[in-house]
UniProtKB/TrEMBL annotation:
Keywords: NADP, Oxidoreductase
SUPFAM superfamilies attached to this UniProt entry: NAD(P)-linked oxidoreductase
Domain NADP-dependent oxidoreductase: 2-242
Keyword NADP: yes
Family listed: Belongs to the aldo/keto reductase family.
A GO MF label: oxidoreductase activity, acting on the CH-OH group of donors, NAD or NADP as acceptor
List of residues binding substrate: 76
Active site, renumbered: 12
Origin superkingdom: Eukaryota
Marked site: Lowers pKa of active site Tyr: 43
UniProt name for this protein: NADP-dependent oxidoreductase domain-containing protein
């Protein structure tokens, strides 16, 4: 279909399957697909935090993915497994993790490095120890979680904001969401689905969107948004939802010290 980005993580437990699938594609002469045609993103699990842990984790991901470099590698979460939310262990470990990623970036093993689920506070803290600031911050983003301050901060600091859970973990696609503004916006547009309206909203907000899909039909539907758009009025209606229905469907990192 034209997709060329694979977003995975050690905690998803599918790196080996992805590695095998990609190798099969690369060895298929009819596909003419090469390693440098595909962008692979993977992530460091909370239990792998720290300099030594991160270094070892990247090695495991490389072997599982059957590649000698990863295009983008992220610290998946600003905390470390097993520590209380207020523990200073979180900062110590994420600093060590970042130092490991910087080392591997300088060696060429990681082509780009970044973070995921980092708040403005966590990103500001990085300026105290990072020699290389994160290139990407991957966070939950949808009309119920607009992340306006974080989006603005990333834009001002040259950080690419990547949106996950753009469809609210599919909760925003149901027949009775109770969110009249969302349902009406999609209903007035015969040329787009509700999923496409949500993805377009994220793109209009300046985010890269990487929605999950479980069928070929949905994969095609998602990719088709590249030829569509939303009006200023439609964007304003979707922007207004957060103030009335704000929620995270996934992790909320604001409590992590």
């Amino acid at each position: 279909m034209g997709y060329r980005l694979v977003d995975t993580a050690s905690s998803y437990r599918n790196e080996s399957a992805i590695g095998s699938a990609l190798q099969a594609a690369f060895s298929n002469n009819s596909s003419k697909l090469r390693r440098d045609d595909v962008w692979i993103t993977s992530k460091l699990a909370p239990k792998e935090q720290g300099f030594e842990g991160a270094t070892a984790a990247v090695g495991r991901s490389l072997r599982a993915l059957q590649t000698d470099y990863i295009d983008l590698y992220l610290v998946h979460w600003p905390g470390v497994s097993g520590a209380a939310p207020e523990s200073p262990e979180h900062r110590r470990c994420r600093e060590g993790s970042w130092k490991a990623l910087e080392t591997l970036y300088n060696q060429g093993t990681l082509r780009a490095i970044g973070v995921s689920n980092y708040t403005v506070r966590h990103l500001e803290e990085m300026k105290e120890y990072a020699e290389i600031l994160p290139m990407v911050n991957q966070c939950e983003l949808h009309p119920l979680c607009t992340q306006q301050e974080l989006l603005r901060y990333c834009r001002d600091n040259g950080i690419v904001f990547t949106a996950y859970a753009s469809l609210g973990e599919s909760a925003l696609l149901g027949p009775n969401t109770g969110i009249v503004e969302l349902e009406d916006t999609a209903a007035r547009r015969a040329d787009i689905t509700r999923a496409q309206a949500l993805l377009l909203w994220g793109l209009h907000r300046g985010a890269a969107v990487i929605p999950k899909a479980s069928s070929a039909e949905h994969l095609r539907e998602n990719l088709a948004v590249l030829g569509l758009g939303l009006s200023a009025d439609e964007l304003a209606v979707l922007d207004s939802i957060d103030s009335k229905y704000h929620r995270h469907f996934c992790w909320n990192p604001s409590t992590i010290a």
